[in-house]
Amino acid sequence: MHIKKLIVYNFKSFYGKFEISLDEGINIIVGDNEQGKSTILEAINLCLTGFVGGRYFKAELSEHLFNVDIVNEYLSSLNTDNKKEPPSFLLELYLDDDSIPEFMGDDNSLKSGNVGLYYKVQFDERYKLEYENLVKHGEINSLPIEYYEVVRSSFARNYLTNRQVPLKSALIDSSEFRYRNGSDVYVNRIIKDLLDEKELVEISQAHRGMKDEFKNHDAIKRINEKISKSSRVTKKNVTISTDLNTQSAWESSLSAYVDSVPFSLIGKGEQCLIKTNLALSHSKTIESNLLLLEEPENHLSYSKLNVLLDGIIRGSKDRQVILCTHSSYVANKLSLKNLILLANKKTVRLSDLSEDTYDFFKKVAGYDTLRLVLCDKAILVEGDSDELIVQKAYSDVKGRLPINDSIDVISVGVSFLRWLEIAEKINKEVCVVTDSDGDLSALKKKYKKYLDDPKKYSNIKICFDEIIDKGSLIVSGKPFNYNTLEPKILKANGLQVMNQVFETNYQDEDDLRKFMKNSKTECALKIFNTSHKINIPEYILKAINDE
Questions:
Q1: Nearest Cα to 93, choosing from 1, 5, 27?
Q2: How far are the Cα atoms of 7, 97, 116 from residue 108, in angstroms, in the given order?
């Protein structure tokens, strides 16, 4: 069983309707800040558990859980003749399992037969008369939460408790840690779910035995006798003991330990690993088959992150995993095939990339692919020196660095076509700045579809110098390549200017060419930091001025 679709109405950052389709296995949600990634995880977990922020939702109900624009529209209308009804928010989960008829029905926003459940917070009509009196006297300045009710139901109109929900979730947020008596609430819950009914009874009985032993200890008897004699509060007997008034009292008093250290005191990275692996190793697979992860890369070293990701990959064979991340490494490692881009409250998938491209980024996971996904525009270059020169050129032309305009200059090695494949799918504006290496026919063949059909690929621009330069210089027994970035910059500026920039005194251009070839990054840094006027090759300016 897995969630195939989530529909949200007016919850937190989502105004009106938002819909996201989810796959079985791994789902990777990426997006800029404040796009609603965390809210998606929170909505799913709330619908399934009735908890928000680790607390029971009914105790946390606040107008801030409603979309702020919806609330403001409602409050503004109260001073007009066209008063709006108190707003509500709705969370719907559509499931793929047709074997649970008690969850199949048309009580959903699509009004069609589906399997699923919903969580709705709405105005309680039983308070309508009192509410109307308050509105009449102008006494409502905020959302009247006290008149609201929470409804959780299946699509078959069956009200639900947590026990009846067929899909159990574990939400693990390594950026937040909520402790209860020194132990993480999620760890306690996961451990509890690992146990069967007999084991839960055994723990409860053992815990009750601790109360009896505590109460009958000689020191406690003496202390209680003293308290009773000294008390002036009441004529009744006052004593101290342990609290076992509820069946689940042991949950709030037990603490998890790791190598004899309380869970709350171990490293946060280790906490994330333990919680994730506990959830993935859950014995009740049928009941606990959804793992929600918020930025799993937080607090983890490179090696520990790899351990975690390998565990997620193995565990996703039996469970659905939905995670949010800002890490390209996480996205690449778990496969871009599973990536969902969230932008402007809409979703875009990196579907239909070639299997070779998926596999490439999965195996060479260090490429910062999310920089391309999340920027407004990208300029792709081959290496570090190219990146520095393009940054310098942009700064000279625009008076600021490209990143200040949400334009990212990204070094991609020789894998331009793989990055362009991604850009095609998400319609990202991209400029490629590349060397011709003296072979225009090979370069034009490589980028043929983009060069031949610029209207179809209007978001992709290929920038290179169409002039082939030649010379007689031989380096290490091979003809020197006059058609790379460094000799093109020398050609645009001349020997005297470049000597001033590099603080060198070469008398011959070929000697300077060899110096620039052997010290690419050093020369690029000198150019980036120089106060001298530098002429930028035209093909680079073409990429910068292509708005």
A1: 5
A2: 10, 16, 9
Give strand ranges (E) for 161-256: 169-173, 179-180, 183-184
Cα separation, 326 vs 342, whole angstroms: 12
**Residue bearing the bigger pLDDT, 230 or 541:** 541
DSSP 66: B
Average pLDDT of 29-55? Answer: 86
Q: Residue 535 carries which DSSP code?
A: P
Give CATH for domain 3-167. 3.40.50
Report the alpha-carbon distance of residue 463 to residue 460 in Å, rounded.
10
Q: Taking the alpha carbons of 158, 161, 165, 171 in that order, is the dihedral positive or negative? A: positive
Distance between CA atoms of 486 and 298, rounded to whole angstroms? Answer: 40
Q: Is 260 helix (H, G, I), strand (E, B) or coil?
A: coil
Q: How far apart are CA 190 and CA 272, in angstroms?
A: 13
Task: End-to-end CA distance of the chain: give it in Å, rounded.
Answer: 47
8-state DSSP, 340: E
Q: Is 105 helix (H, G, I), strand (E, B) or coil?
A: strand
- Residues forming CATH 3.40.50 domain(s) in the chain: 3-167
Mean pLDDT of 99-105: 87
Query: How many other C-beta atoms are found inside a 10 Å radius of the C-beta of residue 72?
Result: 11
